[in-house]
Design brief:
Layout: H1 10-23, H2 32-48, E1 53-54, E2 62-64, E3 73-79, E4 85-92, H3 103-111, E5 115-116, E6 121-122, H4 127-133, E7 141-151, E8 157-168, E9 172-174, H5 175-182, H6 190-193, H7 198-218, E10 228-234, E11 237-244, H8 248-270, E12 275-279, H9 286-295, H10 306-319, H11 324-335, E13 339-343, H12 370-384, H13 392-425, E14 432-441, E15 444-449, E16 454-459, E17 470-479, E18 484-490
Parallel strand pairs: 1-8, 2-9, 16-18
Antiparallel strand pairs: 3-4, 4-7, 5-6, 7-8, 10-11, 12-13, 14-15, 14-17, 15-16, 17-18
Helix pairs in contact: 1-13, 2-3, 7-8
């Protein structure tokens, strides 16, 4: 197929994204009924529920991507003693606004997730909600679910509770600028300097998050690191794909959310109610992971063991940090995707292999993920002892559906990213690149080149090439419309 005449334009990616959404069964637009409901959401929600206790005076702040508008969480910390810190996570109370079986809920239930493509964002909820009424926006009063945790020395959880409250975001912060400041590589963000005491509070949060992270890794959490590529546009024209790398500010949010999700899961289990869990039960191709480790002179056990795998990953990250994301990508592919399952009160889930946590649910992003909204509804019912909003059979079907649509959303996002990548590489046919194999199956063999970090299919002479293997490839073909990037192996 011929390349689109305006193949470097963002508008082309928008068309490709919309087509992909439809092909994978998503609803790219909200129904007229859903949009009409927006007119009554605010007054109805305000009258329906008590807003909870008043915590608007605390030094709440959001940390997210520079361009994020759907703010799901705020965090704050308070030193209790020399060895104990109280951490509060506020999660947007989306359930107060989006009622089960409403037209808005029907759209969210169908799509199950916001889909973030290089062309445009397809939010799970109308923007009037996700970026306004249910977003924890700067200086706005908002209802929230509070997960309170007391963290002792070494990152050990000493206690926790869940309740409802009113909050106010004192500072809208971005990952990169906060991380640069924490690492003494950049100035204090102006939004931090404008709020007295916020700098000390963020440093306290950073210290606790690092302790939580260290404890998880001691228990076998995998220190994986990938290079997620984000398109960079100059106006309407794509100019680059830049790797979205980890940093200390992201780790604050990541480790607090993992801890908060654990608290939520244990709370629901203690209330003897069925709920959703997110997990990677066991690695899909452990044998190949063992083979890759052997190539680095590291012996892994024959049976899956997260602690041993984490020791291997930590050693390789220290030995070769520049190439570590490539090893991580290979391991992630071999671990296989996660899935949603139902945990009943009389059952124990096997836990999340990659996170080294047994009690894990999704509860901290209800603006963006339907499983989190489901969990929030169950949690609110359990708090007051009211009838649960979902039956066991309904949860089982929702778990299956949410897993399927999350996988579909990943496919849509990857397809549009590949179209963006094809735009960048369209003029480089014949160029040679260093690459790593990221997928090997009957349906095809895939490789990712390093600069720019782009994945494509390996054509010809791919027999015997397996995940994690490094090789030299040559670009032979691109197709922006289909998101095709084809390489061949060269000596």
């Amino acid at each position: 197929m011929a390349t689109h005449p305006d193949a470097r334009r963002k508008g082309v990616l928008e068309q490709i994204a919309r087509r992909a959404m439809q092909e994978y069964g998503f609803l790219p637009d909200f129904s007229a009924d859903a949009l009409n409901e927006l007119k009554t959401v605010w007054p109805t929600s305000r009258a329906a529920e008590s807003p909870g206790i008043d915590l608007r005076h605390l030094l709440w702040a959001s940390i997210d991507n520079d361009d994020s508008l759907d703010l799901d969480q705020l965090t704050v910390a308070e030193a209790l003693t020399d060895t104990e810190v109280k951490v509060l996570v506020a999660v947007a109370d989306v359930a107060a606004f989006v009622k089960k079986n409403s037209a808005i809920d029907a759209h969210a239930r169908h799509n199950t997730t916001s889909v973030y493509t290089a062309g445009r964002i397809y939010p799970m909820l109308p923007e009037r909600l996700s970026t306004d009424l249910t977003s924890l926006n700067y200086h706005e009063y908002r209802p929230a679910m509070i997960i309170e945790m007391v963290i002792g020395d070494g990152g050990v959880m000493r206690g926790s509770k869940i309740y409802r409250a009113r909050v106010r975001n004192q500072a809208k912060l971005a990952y990169n600028s906060v991380a640069a400041w924490l690492d003494a590589k950049g100035p204090m963000p102006a939004a931090v300097a404008a709020v007295p005491g916020l700098d000390e509070n963020l440093r306290l949060q950073d210290r606790v998050a690092q302790q939580l992270k260290a404890l998880r890794h001691e228990h076998g959490a995998l220190g994986l690191q990938t290079l997620e590529a984000r398109p960079v546009f100059a106006g309407d024209e794509i100019r680059d794909l830049q790797a979205d790398e980890p940093n200390r500010a992201k780790e604050i949010i990541e480790d607090f959310m993992i801890a908060a999700n654990g608290v939520t899961a244990r709370f629901l289990h203690g209330k003897q109610v069925a709920s959703l869990r997110r997990m990677v039960r066991s690695p899909k191709r452990w044998g190949r992971i063992v083979e890759i480790a052997a190539q680095y002179k590291f012996k892994l056990p024959a049976q899956p063991d997260s602690k041993s795998l984490e020791k291997f990953l930590a050693a390789q990250k220290a030995a070769d940090p520049l190439r570590f994301p490539d090893l991580s990508l290979a391991v992630i592919k071999l671990l296989g995707p996660g899935e949603y399952v139902v945990e009943a009160p009389d059952e124990a889930s096997p836990g999340h292999f990659g996170l080294a946590v047994k009690d894990y649910t999704h509860s901290t992003a209800p603006n963006r993920r339907f499983p989190d909204l489901i969990t929030q509804r169950i949690m609110k019912a359990a708090l007051v002892g009211s009838p649960l909003p979902y039956s066991r059979d309904e949860l089982t079907e929702l778990a299956r559906h949410c897993t399927e649509k999350e996988n579909d959303a990943n496919k849509v996002e990857r397809l549009v990213t590949k179209s963006a990548a094809a735009m960048l590489l369209a003029s480089r046919t014949g160029d040679r690149f260093d690459a790593i194999c990221t997928g090997a199956a009957d349906k095809g063999t895939w490789v990712r080149i390093f600069k720019p970090p782009i994945e494509g299919r390996l054509l010809y002479e791919f027999k015997g090439v397996d995940v994690g293997q490094r090789l030299k490839v040559q670009l032979v073909h691109t197709d922006v419309e289909r998101g095709y990037i084809d390489f061949k192996k060269v000596q």
